[in-house]
Structure formats: structure tokens, C-alpha cells
């Protein structure tokens, strides 16, 4: 019986991300996780009605070049061994903290999310109605892991505490759910409807916009635009926003940190995501270049996922290679 090649490929490409950013510890963790999926699954059926193509991008930005990239991203797709449903796990995190703590926090959050969710999606008989609770529990666990590490650090009389934003997307067949903590965003571009921001920022400026104190366009220039009101690691529990979505043929989903959306702006993001000829990898490359052209003042991290409903009988798993811009 064949190995789930698409899932192994996804892990190898995420390992490549870690190696290219000299994060060997994370590469080792991903390698260990990948080995769990090297047992033969049930025979594959090629009548699955959905395929997902993915692009991942990370760049330190212009202002922070030469310093640790506190953004981290992950993307993996596979086929459930019980139901033969196509699934995907995608996540983006923007870490914060002194020294390299931000990088540790974002990596730790995504490692915990992936290690908690991916085995279930790959091996268990998943009910679509349970995606939200599965995602919420994984985020809660990631928050607790980071919080406990902060407590251990505090006991050593270090003043450097770490935290991270997190936006994660789980797809299981046509069903999906997005979890959000902080100001990393999820967008959906749908043919005929245009671009829609799915998540809500947990930030000072978002609260000011909601109260009418400032205009929406001021979020890009306000002096407190980098202050968030919710993150992983600050307390033993965290409030998680969940957004269920039904994906459709032609949908494109973008997860990105503020180093992307703040430097590019929504109309420019829409212009790229609406391009029917552009691959997910091409979109990542174009968005990264646009963020750098917009100033590159922050780390850049993003994941693009394209949904295609295919004709029965066609092979249905594609994963575009990792994209990076130097």
C-alpha cells in the first residue's frame, strides 16, 4: 500500500523552510513528526473531488534583515486514511519577546498546533462539525505550552517574556475553520465576490476603529498600530476567535502577518489573489515582493492555499513547492 506522498512532500518542504532559515531544531522536530506518517495508509482513491495547491513564504524584511525572523509558517495537506477526504493544516505566527524569544514562541506555537491536529486529521474519522473544537483545543494547548515556558523563564529571574500571534486554518473536504489570536490575518478571495478579511484584529487600533475614534485607514499609520490586545503565552488561558467556512471551487485563502498586510494593503492583495493564471507559489512571491516594495519594515510570513474541485477520476492532490524571496 502506498505512502501518502503529498503529506511527506509537505513535511519535506516545511523542513526546507527551517533549514533555509538556519532553524535546525525546528527541522528536527518536523522530521520526527513526519516519521509518524510513514506507515502505509489505506489504499488511495483518486475520485476525491478536491485538490489544494499551496505556497509558503518567509522573509526577514528590509529593516530587520540579519536578525531572527520572528514570523513562522507551516502548511501540509494529505488524505484521511479512514474517509479518503482531502485535508489541510495551515498556520502563521508572529512572535514577540526579547532576544530570540519571539522566534521561539512562533515556532513553539506552530509545532504544538501541528503535533496536536495533524495526527487526528490524518488517521481519525473526523466529523466536520468538530473542526472548531479540535482547533480551539490545539490553540489552547499551544498557549499553555508557551505560558509554562514563560513561567519557567520568570523563575530564573529573566525579564524577557515571549508571546505570539496565531492564525490557523484547517480544511477537511469542503469544510474549514480558522482560529485567530492577535493581528495576523486570514483572507478569502472568492470568484464573483472579491476579497474578504475573515479574521478580526486583536489590537489597539482595531478597537479604536470599532469605537469610531479613528478612521479605518489610520490603522496603517497610528503610533500604537503594533500593540496587540491578545496573544499566546501571556496567561494560562486565551480567548480564541473561530470562523467556520465552506470552501468552494476557485477559492484562494491567505494567512499572513502584519508584515504583509500592513505593507501591501487590501486592494493590492486582492489584485494578486484574483489572478486566475497565477499559482499559489507565484502569489506568495508577488506578495512578498510587494511587502518589500512597501517598505519591508517588519518580518514577512504568509501561506496561500488555492482550492480546486476536480472532475471525478482525476488525481487530486497537488502541493506547490515552498517559495522564498532573498
CATH class assignment: Alpha Beta
Q: Please give the largest β-sheet.
A: 6 strands, antiparallel
Poorly predicted parts: 39-46, 311-326
Give the helix level as a range of percent. Answer: 25-40%
> What sequence of helices (H) and strands (E) makes up the elements?
HHEEEHHEEEEEHEEHHHE
From the alpha carbons, calculate the radius of gyration and give it in angstroms. 19 Å
Describe the structure.
The protein is of the alpha+beta class and 326 residues long. It has one domain (5-309): Phosphatase 2c, domain 1 (4-Layer Sandwich), CATH 3.60.40. 35% of the residues lie in helices and 24% in strands. It is built from 8 helices and 11 strands. The protein has helices at 5-20, 24-35, 101-123, 131-155, 204-211, 258-264, 266-273, 280-293, and strands at residues 50-59, 71-79, 86-96, 163-164, 166-172, 175-181, 185-190, 194-197, 241-246, 252-256, 300-309. The strands form 2 sheets. Strands 2, 3, 4, 5, 6 and 9 form a 6-stranded antiparallel β-sheet that branches. Strand 5 and strand 6 form a beta hairpin. Helix 3 (101-123) runs antiparallel to helix 4. The N and C termini lie far apart (40 Å). Mean pLDDT is 86; it is low at 39-46 and 311-326.
Amino acid at each position: 500500500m502506498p505512502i501518502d506522498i503529498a503529506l511527506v512532500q509537505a513535511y519535506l518542504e516545511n523542513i526546507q523552510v527551517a533549514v533555509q532559515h538556519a532553524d535546525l531544531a525546528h527541522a528536527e522536530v518536523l522530521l520526527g513528526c513526519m516519521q509518524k506518517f510513514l506507515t502505509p495508509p489505506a489504499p488511495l482513491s483518486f475520485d476525491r473531488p478536491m485538490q489544494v495547491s499551496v505556497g509558503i513564504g518567509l522573509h526577514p524584511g528590509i529593516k530587520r534583515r540579519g536578525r531572527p525572523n520572528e514570523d513562522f509558517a507551516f502548511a501540509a495537506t494529505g488524505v484521511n486514511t479512514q474517509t479518503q477526504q482531502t485535508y489541510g493544516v495551515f498556520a502563521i505566527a508572529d512572535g514577540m519577546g526579547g532576544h530570540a524569544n519571539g522566534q521561539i514562541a512562533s515556532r513553539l506555537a506552530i509545532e504544538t498546533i501541528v503535533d496536536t491536529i495533524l495526527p487526528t486529521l490524518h488517521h481519525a474519522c473526523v466529523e466536520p462539525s468538530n473542526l472548531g473544537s479540535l482547533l480551539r483545543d490545539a490553540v489552547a494547548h499551544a498557549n499553555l505550552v508557551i505560558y509554562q515556558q514563560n513561567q519557567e523563564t520568570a523563575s530564573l529571574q529573566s525579564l524577557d517574556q515571549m508571546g505570539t500571534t496565531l492564525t490557523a486554518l484547517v480544511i477537511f473536504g469542503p469544510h474549514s475553520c480558522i482560529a485567530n489570536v492577535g493581528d495576523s490575518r486570514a483572507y478569502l478571495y472568492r470568484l464573483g465576490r472579491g476579497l474578504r478579511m475573515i479574521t478580526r484584529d486583536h489590537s489597539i487600533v482595531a478597537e479604536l476603529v470599532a469605537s469610531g475614534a479613528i478612521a479605518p485607514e489610520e490603522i496603517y499609520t497610528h503610533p500604537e498600530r503594533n500593540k496587540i490586545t491578545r496573544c499566546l503565552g501571556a496567561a494560562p488561558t486565551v480567548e480564541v476567535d473561530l470562523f467556520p467556512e465552506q470552501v468552494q471551487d476557485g477559492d484562494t485563502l491567505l494567512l499572513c502577518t502584519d508584515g504583509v498586510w500592513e505593507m501591501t494593503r487590501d486592494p493590492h492583495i486582492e489584485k494578486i489573489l484574483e489572478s486566475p493564471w497565477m499559482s499559489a507559489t507565484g502569489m506568495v512571491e508577488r506578495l512578498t515582493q510587494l511587502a518589500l516594495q512597501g517598505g519591508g519594515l517588519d518580518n514577512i510570513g504568509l501561506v496561500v492555499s488555492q482550492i480546486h474541485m476536480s472532475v471525478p477520476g482525476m488525481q487530486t492532490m497537488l502541493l506547490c513547492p515552498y517559495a522564498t524571496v532573498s
